[in-house]
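sorry to bug you again but im stuck and you know this stuff better than me. below you get a single protein, a line of residues and a line of whole numbers that encode the local backbone shape. mainly i need to know what kind of three dimensional shape the backbone takes. anything you notice is useful, everything is just below:

***
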Amino acid sequence: MDDRSYDLCKSMVSRTYIAQAVEANVPVHKLVNRLLEQKRIPDDPVPDHVIKSLLNDLADMDTSNFSSNCGAGEREGRVYSQLVAECHYRMSHGIGRSGELTSVQPKAAGSSILAQLTNKMALHALKIAGATHVEDGFVVPMATGMTLCLCFLTLRSLRPSAKYIIWARIDQKSCFKSMITAGFIPVVIENILVGDEVRADVDAIRRKVDELGSENILCIHSTTSCFAPRAFDDLPKIAAMCKEQDIPLIVNNAYGTQSSKCMHLIEEAARIGRMDALVQSLDKNYMVPVGGTLFASYDSGFAEAFSRMYPGRASASPSTDLFITLLSMGVSGYQKLLQERKQVFAYLKEKLEVLATSCNERVLNTPGNNISLGLTLTTLDTDRCTLLGSMLFLRHVSGARVVVPSTVQTVERYTLKGFGTHCEKYPVPYLTVAAGIGMRKEEVDVLVTRLLKVLKEVPTRRESSAPSDRESQCAVRTGSVTQAPN
């Protein structure tokens, strides 16, 4: 209601009551106005009813929700199902225009405001996480692999003679296929093994640049976050080389914003070298449904070129999800989640080390990765390793990966030996688990309990004929492993 509405209400109830109601809404109006003015995440979490009210007001600004609107085009925001309309808060026009992802959509003023606010808040979230000097960023309604693909296509017009992408190997299909889908030739640089840890071979990358010639290289495709035993790439060294050789650097930072170590590497790399873009998954970093990424760049010119490369109008759903989530978190909530993740990672490592000792295994030493951990499975043969993974999944343990070094994977025409280990000859099979943002210590307890139970049930190489010995072996020192309910 507007001021006139409140005045009319005074004829039905006491003026004092109306004044109280108006006064009660003042903090809400101030909060919304501050959001519109500052375009940043509020310090404190915003209540759900305030978020719903704001979404409703924004939806009323889209032409498809005008009571007098007469749509005469082929795309007028018509939605048949009321359930679908409610899922999207009555905003059905999407964002952007056919010419640019970040353009204002004339039929959807409210959706456009939501998209712009979300982009500003997402950039604020990156700065909170550690990328304090990043220049531009916005939500892209595609998952990580396709957003990387669009980065490469954007570079094509800037480097028309280039056909190679240099890529320090990481055994994750979507980032590999993003280069092939874009029409370029991936040049796979095998990693080096340092103790337990698999690291990018920066010297080999430099040698390959010299061999191919910088003018023939579209970019170096680097990686931060990944599952153990792979370490984060040495971004400062790679970025310095890219600046020296005038080669673009695209960083797959899929779930790196939750790691202060990743963000420090990114910020340092941008300070001393060249970094054209970094791509973050929305679901992995901000706990929203799958389907969006946060594109960011230290080069506003490249960000603009990327935005123009997106063909057609875009779905507003990822922006809406992130808008709601960041308002619900507030700065204080987001910072708390980042801090809690560090604590959960340390707790997970501690519990896994106790379990490993009790079963004659060990936790892989991977100091260059503070998100994912690996547990050796040296007492199991390949078949039993595979069985272990299946048993965990059937016991509702999701996300854990069992990796055996003998695995060979073909992606398109490229064959990767030792797939999953990020190198050709990793010495041991292992299980990986991650302490992602939002994970709780209670989940760690359940994980360790179920893993211990499964390890007792799977016979080792020596004990296949006497499984009871395995149970006895794994019982050693388990008193210090928290026993959680199944």
In short: Confidence is low (pLDDT under 50) at residues 475-486. The longest strand covers residues 217-223. The CA atoms of residues 157 and 305 lie 10 Å apart. The chain is about 45% helix and 15% strand.
